[in-house]
Amino acid sequence: MSAAAAPAAAATVKEPREILRVENLVKHFPITAGMFLSREVGSVRAVDGVSFELNEGETLGLVGESGSGKSTTGRLVLRLLEPTSGSVQFDGQDVLALEEAKLRALRGKMQIIFQDPYGALNPRKTVLETVAEPLLIHGRRWGPELHARVRELLELVGLASYHADRYPHEFSGGQRQRIGIARALALNPRFIVCDEPVSALDVSIQAQIVNLLQDLQEELGLTYLFIAHDLGVVKHISTRVAVMYLGRIVEIADKAELYARPLHPYTRALLSAIPVPRPGAGRERVILQGEVPSPINPPSGCHFHTRCPFAVAECRAVDPPLREVAPGHKAACHLVQPQTAQEGPRGP
Amino acid sequence: MSEPLLSVRNLKTVFKTEDGQFAAVDDVSFELNEGEVIGIVGESGSGKSVTALSIMGLVPNPPGRIAGGEIRFEGRNLLELPEREMRRLRGGRMAMIFQEPMTSLNPVFTVGDQLFEGIIEHEGVGKRAARDRAVELLDKVGIAAPAERLDQYPHQMSGGMRQRVMIAMALACNPKLLLADEPTTALDVTIQAQILDLLRELQEEFRMAVIMITHNLGVVAEFAHKVMVMYCGRAVETAPVGELFERPSHPYTQGLLRSIPHLDHEGARLRTIKGTVPSPFALPPGCRFAARCEHARPACAEAEPPMIGVVPDHEAACIRLTGYRHDLTRATEPVA
């Protein structure tokens, strides 16, 4: 497979190469009222100033609870949703400035895998039609060559070529997710947004899909933005992890660093809330009070201050910037002490 | 020793569909004492929810039907009780909470109306007394400003709050047995932690027995005293919770435990269980897990494996424990 050779070679390059840069991304969904819903009365601030970058061959895990804006961020990066403001650079190109035709060409390089393998596949189309669709739209393959490519893709994701003529309802959840992955791979993308790809699957199947995604990454040199709420899965698959809360990244660091030394109080609470499959594992649990506030009127200052056990007056007034507190480790909290010559960074 | 609070013997629940009949629960037995928590673990289609519905007498008929076995609760066989008696038990001595509180709450009635209904029905009190009791219950489950919340509709509440309301409804008549079917699965982790904490507190305070149905082994490890693992309608392993995690003896349990990415787990690849769950209409002969099992031998396909004792209170349905012999029911030496 000649197409796979080039990215595979790129993955072995030592110098990390930036493939995606997201700066100050904002998405506000208007809330309208009045006759014909023409009057804007407010907005849902789903994504509220998100910045990160991604190196080639890397996996950035994006975690957060419902309403944190993680899925919206994924869609904004691919411009499946138009951002309110901000910038997205993919491989040196300004994604948000591209016109229709150029954007379509770029979409071949940036793909998405969805959470629900039942909802993401057209029940009236065979696997062949589903997987071939992107190839036809982009005018890449025809006739026998098209069939051969579909068979190749199916085998790549662990399905058999005879599955091509079947319909989605004939497959289990895990197999459907494989079909979705085959479709995403059809155009040889370099970057894939994985939006909760294993959340709807049973644990024994989850592990199969996670392994498949890792194998494909290695083989094809893919870069992933891996969106999930399961911190165990994210820890397993990610190189770096970003934690979102109410539309903002509150902490981002290398995987090992983030899990070993979480600094933001929200990250700590999130990590401590996960039930551990080890009876009698005595752990100190930070149980957060209350629930996530509405993104329509997020709290002033630090969005987390209403639930934070350490909040002081400054937190209510001033929005903490996401700043580097140790090499490669950023946190958005007034109370985190940056690393000094004597000691490492400290959380509240 | 006194009789357990709940004793399920050889329960078999079948469903009739266009494609034929299958047993969603097939020969399942377990016991539960007062104040004890059992976790029932399994993947989709393992029969864990149908087990709970069978106990509650809520299996939709048709297409479902309890085809055999016995469910004894406080000394009475529930399968022989007239529906009128079952109705008094449900929401009274035993109650159930579900995964998605939105579908269990009626959207056109206020939370208060739905709470009063159960209290008035089961305790025979007037509306004013029911209201006082409802305020007390909402307060108990950690809902702030309970009196105002009573007049709200379910859609005005968040998922976590609705689950608290469901728990309040379940507690209304001080049940001795609570069945919780994936009560935290639809919730975010920080809210899940709150709800699990609440359930634990209430369970201890009221000495309730709880059947916790979940696919999350973490929830089981933190909440249950003992565990039953189900696969394709059958119980494949039962054990005290510490014992199960320390010495899982059925290859399916072992596989499940290995395939979860732990927070403290390091390693490049996850161990998986190969293949997928067989269709209930095309179950293999003998052990239902054999096709996916790394230890399977021809003997596994000969007959359904019985429950085999590993140590007292710990049983697994795997003939590997007897050296692949069907005629032994007690393991000589536990297999790691």
TrEMBL record, chain A:
Subcellular localization(s) per the UniProt record: Cell inner membrane
Nucleotide-binding listed as a keyword: yes
PROSITE patterns with a match to the protein in the record: ABC_TRANSPORTER_1, ABC_TRANSPORTER_2
Residue stretches making up the ABC transporter domain: 20-271
Lipid biosynthesis is among the record's keywords: no
Family annotation (CDD domains): ABC_NikE_OppD_transporters
Protein name per its UniProtKB record: Dipeptide ABC transporter ATP-binding protein
Protein species of origin: Marinimicrococcus flavescens
Automatic annotation (TrEMBL), chain B:
Gene Ontology biological-process annotations: peptide transport; transmembrane transport
InterPro entries: AAA+_ATPase, ABC_Ni/Peptide_Import, ABC_transporter-like_ATP-bd, ABC_transporter-like_CS, Oligopep_ABC_C, P-loop_NTPase
Membrane topology: Peripheral membrane protein
Residue stretches making up the ABC transporter domain: 9-257
Keyword vocabulary terms for this entry: ATP-binding, Cell membrane, Membrane, Nucleotide-binding, Transport
Location within or outside the cell: Cell inner membrane
Keyword NADP listed: no
One Gene Ontology cellular component annotation held by this UniProt entry: plasma membrane
Keyword ATP-binding applies: yes
SUPFAM superfamilies: P-loop containing nucleoside triphosphate hydrolases (SSF52540)
SMART domains: AAA
GO MF term (any one): ATP binding
Location (main, coarse): membrane
UniProt xrefs under Pfam families: ABC_tran, oligo_HPY
Protein family membership: Belongs to the ABC transporter superfamily.
Name of the protein in its database record: ABC transporter ATP-binding protein
Organism: Marinimicrococcus flavescens
Organism lineage: Bacteria, Pseudomonadati, Pseudomonadota, Alphaproteobacteria, Geminicoccales
